[in-house]
Amino acid sequence: MPRAAQRPPSPSPGGSRPPRKRFVLTAMGCAGGMIMLDQTVVAVALDPMSRSLGLTTWVMHRVVLVYVLALSAFAPVGGMAARRFGLLATFRCGIVLFAVASGACGLAPDGDFAGPFLLLMRVFQGMGAGLMIPVATTVITNVYEEHERGRALAVYAGLAQVFFSLGPVVGAVLTQYLGWRSVFPVNVPVAVAALWLAARARVADERGRGGLGVLQPVVVSASVAAVVLALYQCGVWGLADPRTPAALTAGTLALALAVRLVLRSREPLVNLRLLRIRPYAVATGLTFLVQGPQLIVMVHGTLFLRQAMHLPPLTTGLALLPLVGALTTGTFLSGHLLDRYRSIRVPVLLGLTAATLGAVLWTLALPQRGYLWQVPGMVLAGIGMGMPVPALSAELMRAVPRRDRADASVLRQTLRQLGGAFGLALAGALVLAANDDTADAEGIVTATATPAAFATATAFLTAALLCAALLLPGGSPTRAGTAEGGGVPLAQDPSG
Length: 496
Description:
The chain has 17 helices and no strands. By secondary structure, it is mostly helical. The longest helix is centred in the first third of the chain and has 33 residues, at 21-53.
C-alpha cells in the first residue's frame, strides 16, 4: 500500500500565501465533533424514534450497528480516496454525504418503509464519517510544523471531546422540545461551517497518487457485514436453529477470503502485514476489545434509563453526564499517568481494572432501578474505559516505522470500529434472546434483558484486562507524554 509521506506545511494553491492554520484546525475539529456528537445524540433519540415509527428492537439495534459497520468499512476507503483524489476533495465528499444523510434521517417516513429508509441513511452517514476520519489528522499534520503539531492535535481532539460531552444534553433538549427528528439535522449547520472554514483555509491539495479499486472495499465490507449480522441473528434464530451455524460459517469463510484478497493485492485496502509487529498487534487487539463495551453501555444504558426507568428525554440526557464526563476525564488522566510512570501498563491496567469493576457494579445496580445506585458504576466504568486507548495509541504508533504510521492509523481505526460493531452485535443477540417477544415487536428492551448486554460489556473488559496483563510490555521507550516523533499528547486520542 503506498505510504503517506509527511510533508512540510502546504502552500496555497497560488504558492504566494501560507494556509490559514486556525481555519484548518477548526474545520477538522467540526468534522471530528460531528462524528463524536452522533454517537451520543442518537442514543438518546433511539427510544422516541422507535415508538414514533413503530420500529422493532431488531431495527432499533441496527440503527446503531449499520452506522458503525459502514464507518469501519469506509475508513480505509477514505485513505485510498485521499491519495487518489486529494485530501480536501475526499474531506468535502465525506462531510457532504454525512450532512445530507443526517438531514434525511430526520425525514424518515412513517409506515413500513421507515425502517429500511432509516437504515440506508445511517449507512450513508457511516460512509461519510469513514471518508472524513483518515483525512482530518493528516491535514493537520501536513499544515502544522512539528514543534506546533502536538498542540494542534490536542486542540482538535479537545473539540471532538466537547461535542461528545455535549451530545446527551443536546440530544435530550432537542428530543424533549422539538422531537427526535430534530436530532439528526443538527449536524447540517456544523457541516456547512466546516466546509466554509476549509474553503477559506487556503490549503493546497495533491492528487493522483495511487489507485482506487472497487473490488476490495466491496468484498471486505460484505464479508464483515455478513459475520457481524450473522452474530446478531443468533439472538433472533437461537443457537439450535440450523441457520445460525450456517450463517456464521458462511460469514467466517467470506471474511477469510477477503483477508486473503487484501494480502495478495499490490495496493491493499489496509496493510494487514503490520499485524506481524507484535507490540502493534497487541495494542490494536486491546483497542478492539475496549471499543465494544463503550458502545454497549452507551446504547443499553440509555435505553434502560428511558424504557425501564421511564425517564423523560431531558432527564435521560442529564443522567448520562456522569458517564460521558467520566470517559473524557479518563482520556485526559491517561496522559498524566503515562507521563508520570513512563509505562503504558499503568494507565491500561488501571483503566481496565476500574472499567471491569465499574461494569460489574453498574450491572448489579440495574435491578434496583434507582439512578443513584447506578452512578458509582457509571463513573468508574467511564473513567476506566477512557484511560486505555490514548496510551495504546501511543504504543502502536511507536511500534511501527515512521513511514508506516499512516497505514497503521487507518488499520487501527478500522479494527477499533469493528470492535464496537462486534461487541454491539453480540450484546444485541443476547438481549434479543433474553427479551420478551412482545417487547421485541414494540422496540422495548425489558429490564430483565438489559443485564445481558452489560454482562457482555463486562466479559469484553475482563478479556482485555487479562490480555493486557499477559501481553503488554513492562515499559515504554517513548518519551513520556508524546508519541515518538509525532508530538501528539497522550492525553488525547485525535484519531477518534
